[in-house]
């Protein structure tokens, strides 16, 4: 196949916090495309991005945006006075500069916020347009409502292919509701890296639990919608009943400082480990030492961190949001709670019954055993892009409720 070029426009970095840390669902498909002969130009305005993230087949281009990845970037003022009139044209400008050196075959928009930019660029370059969404993030908080309007309009631009992650936020149904024909929607689960060695990392355990404490684990970006503050508040109450317990929080983000202040004010800083962002290959080490994994995601708990925990045979406590219950069956392969108020009792119940933890963990591992690997997931996307570039209709894959 002749070398082809894909331009990606995204509001987030290729990696969350440095190379190899987070965002495997972004990086791995792009890496797969690079390995299959595509040149990928990744344009982003994220403050976490760096040209050093570039590698063979992937060039990262960073737009200078002083307000990216700040709380101000979630406001209506930012959208109207900065993002639309300034950042949009910058994306287009950088893409056109690149196009002078490359014939662009495909334009990827990696969020609803940049769907219009991708659509315009595809028109300019006479290229195919792909809208790649990592769920649809149905957040009802007033501060996010203007971005909800952007999401609504994103489905109104003619697009050749919609690749939507099956993250539990009902993206497939939403796309249909917005009038997208089913033959253009690839509704895919994220893949997982199934651990080869699930042996407990004793060295890490001693570091995190010097007094042989029981470990509760959370792995996610430290963002408002992840509700890590609710986990910390609940842990404070749990620790009064079960003092030989520690909470390990893996991840980084805008909320980290606030969460650390909260832990200090509650007087439990010495019992919480804020690990920060870690390389993806090290996540399994932290999963190996945990007794219980907690996910309080406001949108859905069908995230890679949950998949990885289940794959490692961990018992998961998840909040009942989106289609979480399609994967986690309460009392069978995990615990699903309807509200944060139920979290304390769920934790205490589990930590008081080691046999229950073991049974739910084993069932979780069995449930996730048929989950697609990242290699399978990436290959599906490569085949669809190959078809687009050959002006053929891609074979669409939809994976819902455990079915292909």
Gist?
By secondary structure, this protein is α/β, with parallel strands linked by helices. It contains 13 helices and 13 strands.
Describe this structure in words.
It is a single chain. Helix 1 (24-35) crosses helix 13 (374-389). The strands form two sheets. The protein has a seven-stranded parallel beta sheet with strand order 3-2-1-4-5-6-7, with helices on both faces. The chain has a six-stranded parallel beta sheet with strand order 10-9-8-11-12-13, sandwiched between helices. The protein is of the alpha/beta class. The radius of gyration is 21 Å and the shape is globular. The chain contains 13 helices and 13 strands. The protein has helices spanning 24-35, 76-99, 115-125, 145-154, 171-177, 202-208, 228-241, 256-265, 283-289, 304-311, 343-351, 354-368, 374-389; strands at residues 4-10, 38-44, 58-62, 104-109, 128-133, 161-165, 185-188, 214-219, 245-250, 272-276, 292-295, 315-319, 335-337.
Arithmetic mean of pLDDT: 92
Helix content: 25-40%
Q: Structural class, from secondary structure content? A: alpha/beta
Distance between the termini: 29 Å
* Helix count, DSSP H or I runs of 4 or more residues: 13
Largest sheet: 7 strands, parallel
Q: Quick one: overall form?
A: globular
Give the DSSP E fraction (strand runs of 2 or more residues): 15-25%
Segments where pLDDT lies below 50 for 5+ residues? 400-404
Number of strands: 13
How do the strands line up in the largest sheet? 3-2-1-4-5-6-7
Order of secondary-structure elements: EHEEHEHEHEHEHEHEHEHEHEEHHH
Estimated radius of gyration: 21 Å
């Amino acid at each position: 196949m002749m070398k082809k070029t894909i331009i990606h426009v995204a509001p987030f970095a290729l990696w969350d916090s440095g190379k190899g840390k987070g965002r495997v669902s972004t990086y791995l498909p792009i890496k797969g495309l690079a390995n299959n002969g595509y040149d990928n130009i990744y344009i982003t305005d994220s403050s976490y991005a760096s040209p050093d993230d570039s590698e063979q087949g992937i060039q990262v281009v960073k737009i200078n945006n002083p307000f990216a990845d700040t709380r101000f970037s979630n406001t209506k003022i930012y959208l109207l006075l900065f993002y639309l009139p300034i950042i949009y044209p910058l994306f287009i400008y950088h893409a056109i500069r690149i196009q002078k050196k490359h014939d662009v075959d495909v334009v990827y928009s990696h969020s609803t916020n940049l769907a219009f930019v991708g659509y315009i660029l595809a028109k300019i370059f006479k290229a195919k347009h792909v809208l790649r969404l990592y769920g649809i993030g149905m957040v009802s908080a007033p501060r996010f409502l203007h971005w909800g309007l952007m999401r609504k309009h994103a489905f109104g631009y003619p697009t050749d292919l919609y690749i939507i992650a099956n993250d539990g936020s009902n993206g497939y149904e939403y796309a249909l509701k917005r009038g997208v024909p089913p033959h253009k929607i690839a509704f895919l689960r994220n893949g997982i890296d199934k651990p080869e060695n699930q042996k407990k990392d004793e060295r890490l355990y001693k570091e995190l639990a010097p007094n042989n404490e029981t470990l509760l684990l959370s792995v996610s970006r430290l963002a408002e919608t992840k509700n890590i503050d609710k986990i910390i508040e609940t842990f404070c109450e749990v620790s009064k009943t079960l003092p030989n317990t520690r909470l390990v929080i893996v991840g980084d983000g805008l909320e980290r400082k606030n969460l650390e202040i909260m832990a200090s004010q509650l007087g439990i800083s010495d019992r919480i480990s804020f690990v920060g962002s870690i390389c993806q290959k090290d996540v399994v080490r932290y999963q190996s030492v945990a007794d219980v994994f907690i996910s309080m995601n406001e949108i859905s708990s069908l995230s890679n961190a949950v998949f990885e925990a289940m794959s490692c045979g961990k018992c998961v406590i998840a909040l009942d949001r989106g289609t979480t219950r399609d994967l986690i069956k309460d009392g069978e392969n995990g615990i699903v709670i309807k509200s944060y108020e139920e979290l304390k009792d769920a934790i205490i119940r589990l930590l008081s019954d080691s046999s229950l933890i073991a049974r739910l963990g084993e069932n979780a591992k069995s449930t996730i055993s048929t989950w697609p690997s990242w290699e399978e997931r990436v290959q599906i996307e490569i085949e669809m892009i190959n078809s687009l570039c050959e002006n053929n209709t891609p074979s669409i894959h939809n994976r819902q409720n455990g079915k292909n």
